[in-house]
From TrEMBL:
InterPro entries: Cu-oxidase-like_N, Cu-oxidase_fam, Cupredoxin. Pfam families: Cu-oxidase_3. The keyword Oxidoreductase applies. GO terms for molecular function: copper ion binding; oxidoreductase activity. It comes from Methylomonas koyamae. Residues 175-273, 362-408 form the Plastocyanin-like domain. Keywords: Copper, Metal-binding, Oxidoreductase. This is Copper oxidase.
């Protein structure tokens, strides 16, 4: 029996070996080496290191911020005391207009002001200019990525750009629109000075406000029900005296299906009333609140505002497609169909990864707690996931659930316009926290990991514990190099994400050969059987039997050679 087994095994080996021979003949191309352009520095030396330090300016206590790009401390002082209560030296270190924030008197004697006049303008970022082909007043969300935005901004006195020769938007003009903070029970006038070429308004979403003000004008920001929209060059004052604290929302209610996605949206916070409670009226760009309220400091070591939003590239490019507002209006209001839209850019506090790492980190310390206020500014659902932690929800849409209803989760789902207040704890017990380190957080809707379809990008950022950050605000990560993410080529889709993972670039791109390749010609369709089904192609019918026959023949030859090996050896020995 063993005499029959040997040729069968030889035939089977040769049958499978024929595929190896074919593979060897069809040699794979080598990997090409895609070269990147110059990578930006993670954190430049432009920022004054003193901005990161805890300090007191004009009597305002400002927390330290170890971010790469911290807020200007002089602006924090102005946001707290008002531009009418700070020194001229401090005001000149900002770009705020002298009447940007007017803080009134302490009318109830509790040590803090009770009347605020807050002035907002509307700015366009990455817009069209008749003077140049490239966008002007630029704002990059990632290297080389510049969607057009409309944003509310604190009233400024200076140029919209850094200089005549630098088209980059000055720091007060940026996405997202600024977080606004007021105190419960204060009288607040919000003045919208429409510096844009379209009508706009402010709707105080979730904020306690009357339908009509004392002058008989509409106060809800809706043209169809209360007051005409604010036309270009005009202004409108919204008057509130909010009775309930919480995390709220404000946005434009003119053609909201396009104006909100264009960036006219922001977080609005009513702080709990406390004595001597000077709130930080603006938190430009959201992120770390460097002067938390008295109520927040009673429970938390720090506070962060997280504003998530997305952008449809078609809409944002349409806005800069012409100079004539009538043409832009026709394209946006009559031709653009949001029901067919899809988001291309996903941002946290106005930036996409890796720029989120420069200014939207959450800095933690073991055994301490921070307060996080989250807004879903997308047009779709959102699912916040913080690695290594299970934050506790304390408020939905600005309403305190009560301690008996607080809930811990590691994924927090939110619908558009919804707000959550979260308590993030650094207690290392396997529930609140898994321990110190550098932990990622992001929207777990997977397309939010991308920027124009390329990943990893989108709204990714990090929770970084003390000791895991250097003095310049760079997290001490352990893993792959982040340098490719700081190049334009990566976001242009030119660089293979895994190319440099190993020395031989096994996961790079194959070299493209100039050698002419033979065209692939598909086999003719098989004739139909009598029952109408397709007859197997001849190649398919004979492939197995042909290979089996070839294997048996080669096996038989191999067996013959094996049984007559002595004769063969003697024959060659004689030679």
């Amino acid at each position: 029996m063993h005499k029959k087994v040997i040729p069968m095994l030889c035939g089977a080996m040769l049958l499978s070996g024929s595929q190896w021979v074919l593979a060897a003949a069809d040699k794979l191309p080598a990997s090409t080496n895609v070269k990147l352009g110059a990578a930006e520095e993670f954190c430049s030396e432009f920022t004054d290191p003193k901005w990161r330090e805890a300090q007191v300016i004009d009597g305002v206590e400002i927390q330290e911020s170890r971010m790469c790009n911290p807020d200007n401390p002089a602006e924090i002082a102005a946001f707290v005391k008002g531009t009418n209560n700070i020194s001229m030296a401090t005001l000149m270190e900002t770009q705020l207009a002298a009447d940007a924030i007017t803080v009134g008197n302490d009318m109830d004697g509790d040590g803090d002001p009770d009347h605020y006049i807050i002035k907002l303008e509307i700015a366009e970022l990455n817009g069209h200019s008749p003077d140049m082909k490239e966008p002007t007043t630029t704002f990059d969300i990632a290297p080389g990525i510049q969607p057009t935005f409309w944003v509310y901004a604190p009233k400024t006195r200076d140029m919209s750009t850094l200089s005549l020769y630098e088209p980059v938007a000055n720091p007060l003009l940026r996405a997202p629109s600024p977080v606004i903070r007021v105190e419960q029970g204060d009288i607040v006038w919000i003045v919208l000075e429409n510096s844009h070429y379209f009508p706009h308004s402010i709707h105080l979403h979730g904020i306690d406000h009357p339908y009509m003000d004392h002058g008989g004008e509409g106060n809800d920001g809706v043209g169809q029900t209360g007051q005409m929209d604010v036309m270009p060059g005009q202004s409108k004052t919204y008057v509130i005296k909010p009775r309930q604290p919480g995390t709220m929302y404000y946005h434009c209610h003119v053609q909201p299906h396009t104006h909100i996605p264009m960036g006219l949206q922001g977080i609005f916070i009513v702080e709990e009333n406390r004595p001597n409670n000077w709130v930080q009226v603006f938190n430009v760009g959201a992120g770390h609140v460097r002067h938390p309220s008295v109520a927040v400091k009673e429970k938390y070591a720090a506070e962060y505002d997280l504003h998530y939003q997305s952008a449809d590239k078609e809409l944002h490019e349409m806005v800069r497609s012409a100079n004539d507002p009538r043409i832009i209006a026709r394209r946006m209001n009559q031709e653009y169909d949001i029901t067919e839209a899809k988001p291309d850019y996903f941002m946290l506090n106005g930036r996409s990864f890796p720029y989120t790492l420069r200014e939207s980190l959450i800095l933690m310390e073991e055994n301490k707690k921070v307060k996080i206020r989250v807004l879903n500014g997308h047009e779709e659902e959102f699912a916040l996931h913080i690695h290594g932690h299970k934050p506790m929800v304390t408020h939905y849409d600005g309403v305190d659930n009560g301690p008996s209803s607080y809930i811990k989760r590691d994924v927090h789902a939110m619908v558009p316009a919804q707000r959550l207040d979260l308590e993030l704890s650094g207690v290392d017990d396997g529930l609140n926290s898994f321990g110190q380190g550098v932990w990622m957080f992001h929207d777990h809707v997977e397309k939010s990991f991308t920027t124009n379809g390329i990943g990893e990008g989108g709204d990714i950022s990090l929770v970084v514990y003390k000791g895991y950050m250097d003095e310049r605000g760079i997290p001490k990560v352990h893993g792959m190099s982040l340098a490719p993410y700081f190049t334009k080529e990566f976001w242009q889709g030119k660089y293979p994400a895994w190319q440099d993972y190993d020395a031989w670039k096994s996961l790079g791109l194959p070299e493209i050969s100039n050698k002419k390749q033979a065209a692939f010609v598909p086999p003719p369709p098989a004739p139909a059987k009598a029952d109408g089904t397709a007859q197997p192609a001849a190649a398919e019918q004979s492939s197995f039997f042909g290979q089996l026959f070839t294997g048996l023949v080669l096996g038989g030859l191999g067996y013959a050679g094996f049984t007559n090996r002595q004769r063969i050896l003697e024959l060659f020995g004689k030679k």
